[in-house]
Amino acid sequence: MLLRSEYKVKGGKMIKVSLDVEEGTIKNALIAGDFFLYPEEAIEQIERSLKGVSADSSDLERVLADAVMEAGAQLLGVAVEDIASAVKLAFQSKVV
Amino acid sequence: MASWRFLDSGEGDAYWNMALDEAILMLCAEGKVPETLRVYTWKPSAVSIGYFQSLKQEVDLDACRSLGVDVVRRITGGGAVYHECGGELTYSLVAGEDTLKAKRFFEDIQGSYRVICEAVVEGLKKIGIRAEFKPINDIIVNGKKISGNAQTRRRGVILQHGTILLKTDIPTMFKVLKVSKEKISDKEIKVVEDRVTTIYREAQSSVTLEDIKDALRRGFSDYFNTGIEPSSPTQDELNLASEYRKRFASWSWIAKR
To answer: Is B52 at the interface with chain A, CB within 8 A?
Structure first.
């Protein structure tokens, strides 16, 4: 099933998360929005890191932070915690 | 290289405009062209979306088709912009990070937005507009947005491009961008019109597009304390841009996310 969220970060940027979820775990994730991330291609590595993460996962933030660090990426306009919040919000959303 | 280049590439379509910015960036990163300030406009009108944005979530493709508005995905992050033909001017700066730092020190990516936007502010001052940088990536006049900016880097070279509003067509902007349809009321149009402003509204006297371009050139020149001389793209840049243009115009790139 497809779960979605729109999360507005303090300061104005928007994160739009789409999760393809099967049996409570993420199969595919799209982290879209008007934020900045350099290098840009790192977004795919960050999205891949969410594969297998479950709704009740306690280390969502750590998974995302590790992926950002491993990609040598820098976020601007959003923080790792904001992306984690957007993912949690998607898990709480009604099925689209 | 001591002097920077000023390229006025005039009107171009969305794919060419984005392709030439990337070509300048790549060739500057290879040391084949100097620091470059480019100005350009969009014909036909187009929507550009940020690298990370979802095409279907941001753009009403049917409306674009019926209004003859092109759609392009940028290599830079940030939000969706409606580039109205005749309604805005875009600039791009390609410069080595170290070159910029030596002229105007900054620490991080946010700092690099600040200094480049302050050069734009310096340019606007020359046509009598008192603007200021507003983090993360905006330039405002009396609290109202007049310019949005976005950047990326290749091998230590920064590309920052930004749109500068000359006038607004909020009703068309609402049609081509996916703001929720119930929002498109006269009241909502008024709300957005109150949050943005334009060169033609703020300038002390009547200014032409040429005046604005020259003001930007002088603003960057003064702010970064460097000569910026009118020039033309090199054959390498034109060839590379033609190559890149195919990617920018391809559906697989536009609909990538």
So the answer is: yes
